[in-house]
Amino acid sequence: MSTSSFSRKFLWGASTSSHQVEGHTYNQWTVWENNNAPRLAEDSKDATSNLNKTGYAINWSSIEQNASMASNYISGEADDHYKLFNEDFKLLKSLNLNSFRFSIEWSRLQPEEDQWNQEAINHYHNYINSLIELNIEPIITIWHWTMPVWFANYGGFERKSNLKYFYNYVKKVSFEYGSKIKYIAILNEPNVYTGMSYMVGQWPPQKKSTTLALLKVYRHLAIAHRQSYKIIKKDYKNIMVGIAMSLTYTLPASTHNPINLLAIKLKDYAWNWWFLNKNKNFLDFIGVNYYMTDYLNWHYKIKSPKSPVSDLGWYMQPADIYYVIKETWQRYKLPIIITENGVADAKDQYRQWWIEETIKALTKNIDEGVNLLGYLHWSLLDNFEWAFGWWPKFGLIAVDRQTMKRTIKESAVWFSQKVKRLSTND
Ligand code: BGC
What we know:
single chain; alpha/beta; three-stranded mixed β-sheet; 14 helices; 13 strands; binds beta-D-glucopyranose
């Protein structure tokens, strides 16, 4: 009799994105970091600053030393993963993981509008070959928020007429790597990108306009997904093409207030479901990125009475992934991959518990009939956490950025043993 709900083919893996680990990328984020690092360092000391007002209870005094240095906000050499990828894949393998999600860096492939960079194209061929040789399933993200500077200067996704550039890039990725891969997530979290770059206005290009965000950028990304799906499927019918979407679980501050309940329905629709509803006929799988549960008191977030918070101040209720997956399945009946899930935990004190709770929840989802194909932890390596820089630590593996030495964390050792038991038990 089967003792594990997870099949032998289940994808156990980890995720990364190019800009956060590769090092020496040159895209719109690099430019923004270089222009904003000193300000971000100052902002970290100012309780009223944008960086500080995330709506979450970050314990700034505990990370003050790192957060107040300008160098914290520069991706720079990152984890030097562009060079050290072979070593990193061997570590991934040693953790009993069989899949890996990464993004292609558009700005490397196409540094200028009329120029394809053969060195970078070859690099990702070697990169994918290396995964395949190790029997690790590559899962490509085509766009994880970074873009060539020339594309950003043209207005990025603000202008519908710019989508043609994105399609050229998608065609190139599909042409080059399509025959080697089974899974592609076209976009990473279009909701987070639109929200942070165009509504909160914290990320580049730091615009704050709901109309620009919702009527242009978010809509254009939805169109971009659909068209790109068609481009890839035209030549590669067997590739599973999907998305990695940030889905949040939201609970009402008080269930007695009907306005609360309505507000949550609206928020869930706008944040979790609008994009997926629009594209449900152009998805072979739904990638779910789950990090947090929010408590809402009609229009503002409140503190959770009971949950501990991560280093980023996010309420840690890992078991709630169950509800998110359940609803995603009920709505779309499409295969699901957890494309990201993890916790900012510099002391590695919560990660094992987090993964354990998550696996229990996913077991329940599978036992109830959800077609769950995989779980990819965020992240393989400690990496560059966007506007927060280097201090948040999401990795299964720590990186000493002076020596680039990798150290496997205790939680990762535990995870690897758990995966071994779950994948040999059926
Ligand atoms: C993003 C990652 C990020 C992670 C942790 C996700 O929203 O896709 O790039 O590092 O969350 O914040």
